UniProtKB/TrEMBL annotation:
<dbReference type="InterPro" id="IPR001387">
    <property type="entry name" value="Cro/C1-type_HTH"/>
</dbReference>
<dbReference type="InterPro" id="IPR010982">
    <property type="entry name" value="Lambda_DNA-bd_dom_sf"/>
</dbReference>
<feature type="domain" description="HTH cro/C1-type">
    <location>
        <begin position="1"/>
        <end position="56"/>
    </location>
</feature>
<dbReference type="Pfam" id="PF13560">
    <property type="entry name" value="HTH_31"/>
</dbReference>
<dbReference type="GO" id="GO:0003677">
    <property type="term" value="F:DNA binding"/>
</dbReference>
<protein>
    <submittedName>
        <fullName>XRE family transcriptional regulator</fullName>
    </submittedName>
</protein>
């Protein structure tokens, strides 16, 4: 997400303004301190301009078949 945000020419504060949230939330998501649900992924993709399906495909490929929840 960081690379996509930077590629879009957005700082964390810029993204936070687009999302109507605090910059600290963006920082926590980017650092891995906070996970996002599927709806948030779609909102982030729209705000930054990336394909959420590509992200899901990457996650699916990297997830072990017996991964536990």
């Amino acid at each position: 997400m960081v690379d996509a945000r930077i590629k879009a020419g957005l700082g964390q504060e810029d993204l936070a303004i687009k999302l109507k949230c605090h910059q600290s939330l963006v920082a926590r998501i980017e650092s891995g301190q906070r996970r996002v649900d599927v709806v948030e992924l779609v909102v982030l993709a729209r705000a930054i301009g990336f394909d959420p399906f590509e992200v899901l495909a990457t996650v699916e490929a990297a997830t072990e078949p017996d991964h536990r929840i």
